[in-house]
Write a structure and sequence with these properties.
- The complex is a heterotrimer of chains A (123), B (242) and C (123).
- Chain A is of the alpha+beta class.
- Chain A has a single domain, classed as Beta-Lactamase, CATH 3.30.450.
- Chain A has helices at residues 3-15, 43-64, 103-120; strands spanning 19-26, 31-36, 69-76, 79-86, 91-98.
- A 5-stranded antiparallel sheet of chain A has the order 2-1-5-4-3, with helices on both faces.
- In chain A, helix 1 runs antiparallel to helix 3.
- The relative contact order of chain A is 0.20.
- By secondary structure, chain B is an alpha+beta fold.
- Chain B folds into 2 domains: 2-101, no CATH class; 118-239, 2-Layer Sandwich (Beta-Lactamase), CATH 3.30.450.
- Chain B has 6 helices and 11 strands.
- A 6-stranded antiparallel sheet of chain B has the order 1-6-2-3-4-5.
- In chain B, helix 2 packs across helix 3.
- Chain B is elongated, with a radius of gyration of 19 Å.
- Chain C has one domain: Dynein light chain 2a, cytoplasmic (Beta-Lactamase, 2-Layer Sandwich), CATH 3.30.450.
- In chain C, helix 1 (2-14) packs antiparallel against helix 3 (104-121).
- The radius of gyration of chain C is 14 Å and the shape is globular.
- The chains are: A alpha+beta (123), B alpha+beta (242), C alpha+beta (123).
- Chains A and B meet through helix 2 and strand 3 of A and helix 5 and strand 9 of B.
- Strand 3 (69-76) of chain A pairs antiparallel with strand 9 of chain B.
Chain lengths: 123, 242, 123
């Protein structure tokens, strides 16, 4: 198992039953690690789609003059989906959790693990 | 650039070209008829269809939802027949479209119609202003139709509300489409955290409009923003005309 | 700002280091804190604690929990008051520096004021 896989397992354990999916994704939309526990949630498609979302979020923030994008949180009636840039912004970390998850602790978790994922990405 | 009105509506074409401050000519074909739009420095300056020109052409072609378009950059307009700002054109076009769909005369000339539209906008602005007092770190808010038309806005800082609504609608539409394609449920709200601000977009019930909020990151609180935003989205929805 | 000021006054009254008013998702609605304290972390943690406590209460067949206290060996205690205003679940959490500082009067007063303000708002 790679270091990224180890970290993903840790994140999954932390989130427990609230976990749906997680991926570390390059801005080309290709995941370098992760996966989904929900057979109906296509992690590959999600990775590709949200890389486009994050690119647009970056452009939007530039046009509005609000600086670099940290993350994007979409709340649906079924899930929370967070995509967060890591390191120099050449990758993002996506997580989908159920609506039972506590957003505040999820954000704390992401704050803690984002730099670890960045360090684990092979150069 | 060529395209299809199924993929990109005329309102979106106008909005995008104006926001990008393009100078261009767009030829639009629909059911054997051909119209022209000329853009210059961020505005629509001339439109032609058959032997007519000006604003009325824009209002008519905004109702076209099938056809093709072809854009040529850098083409100078042969005349200037439109003085109205692009956002006013789209707002008036949307209003006329609503009336057409309701079976009314699509080209009213009564003063009271404009008054009704202005009164509605004032009610919404009142609500947005009231909301601004409840949100810590508040910068700006917009009430926008899913067609991108800015219905009302309230800003504290030097922020262009049209820019805010235009950018947020692009993002929320992409996210909404992505969520739907993934079968991940119905989008309720979207929150983008940036270095300087929180950008929140919340759909009003019915998903015809959304509330956009910009809050300063240093002084704002996420929980406060979401809670107040949700409450005012419901109030704005209640204030919508039936 | 009204809420932030209310919490600030409560901190002065009770001698608290930090207080947060948070939603059930752990996102801060209002806060007042000494420099160096982290309201975002406190909000996230108390919401997580509420979730755990709710589950524990259900398992034990207990009624709704309205308060929990978390104490450390130095005598600091984190007090969480859970309450609803207009069907919105809120948490008021304060950190008292030691057992000399009584929290009950100050938090009771704050909860009453919060009820009054939010009830007006949601009328």
């Amino acid at each position: 198992m790679t270091k990224i896989d180890d970290l993903i397992q840790e994140v999954r354990r932390e989130l427990g039953a609230d976990f749906i999916s997680t991926d570390i994704v390059g801005m080309d939309g290709i995941s370098i690690g992760g996966g989904s526990v929900d057979p109906h949630f296509d992690a590959t498609e999600a990775s590709a789609r949200f890389s486009v979302v994050m690119k647009l979020a970056k452009k939007v923030s530039e046009k509005l003059g609000t600086g670099k994008v940290d993350d994007n949180l979409a709340t649906t009636d079924k899930a929370y989906i967070i995509a967060r840039f890591i390191g120099d912004g050449s990758y993002y970390w996506g997580i989908a959790v159920t609506r039972d998850a506590t957003l505040g602790t999820l954000r704390l978790l992401m704050n803690e693990y984002a730099p670890k994922f960045w360090d684990a990405i092979p150069s | 650039m060529k395209g299809n009105l199924h993929e990109m509506a005329i309102a979106d074409l106008i909005q995008q070209n104006c926001r990008d401050r393009k100078s261009a000519k767009v030829s639009i074909e629909h059911s054997g008829r051909q119209a022209f739009l000329y853009f210059q420095n961020g505005n629509v300056v001339h439109a032609g269809l058959d032997d007519r020109s000006g604003e009325e052409v824009v209002y008519e072609i905004l109702q076209w939802n099938e056809g093709t378009f072809d854009m040529e950059s850098g083409v100078k307009p042969p005349a200037r027949t439109i003085e109205k700002s692009w956002s006013s054109l789209l707002l008036e076009g949307a209003r006329r479209l609503d009336e057409t769909q309701a079976g009314n005369d699509p080209f009213p000339t009564e003063q009271n119609v404009h008054q009704e539209v202005n009164e509605m906008a004032t009610d919404f602005e009142g609500l947005l202003k009231s909301m601004s007092g409840e949100i810590t770190g508040y910068i700006a808010s917009v009430l926008v139709g899913m067609d991108g038309i800015n219905v009302a806005s309230h800003t504290r800082a030097k922020v262009d509300p049209d820019t805010v609504s235009g950018q947020l609608i692009l993002l929320v539409k992409l996210i909404d489409t992505s969520i739907q394609k993934l079968g991940a449920g119905e989008l309720e709200d979207n929150l983008t955290t940036t270095e300087g601000a929180y950008l929140m977009m919340r759909s009003l019930p019915g998903k015809q409009y959304f509330l956009g909020l910009v809050v300063d990151k240093k002084t704002g609180n996420l929980g406060n923003m979401r809670l107040i935003g949700k409450t005012y989205a419901e109030r704005l929805a209640k204030a919508m005309p039936r | 700002m009204q809420m932030n000021n209310l919490l600030s006054e409560m901190n002065d009254e009770g001698g608290f280091e930090i207080s947060v008013l948070t939603d059930s998702q752990g996102l801060t609605i209002a806060s007042a804190a000494k420099p160096g304290m982290d309201p975002e972390r406190q909000s996230a943690v108390v919401a997580f604690m509420q979730k755990a406590v709710l589950q524990a209460g259900r398992q034990l067949g207990m009624g709704a929990t309205d308060e929990i206290t978390f104490s450390d060996s130095d005598g600091r205690h984190l007090v969480c008051r859970f309450f609803d205003v207009n069907r919105h679940a809120l948490i008021l959490a304060v950190m008292a520096p030691d057992r000399e500082h009584s929290y009950r009067r100050a938090t009771n007063h704050a909860v009453r004021r919060i009820h009054k303000i939010w009830n007006q708002f949601w009328k």
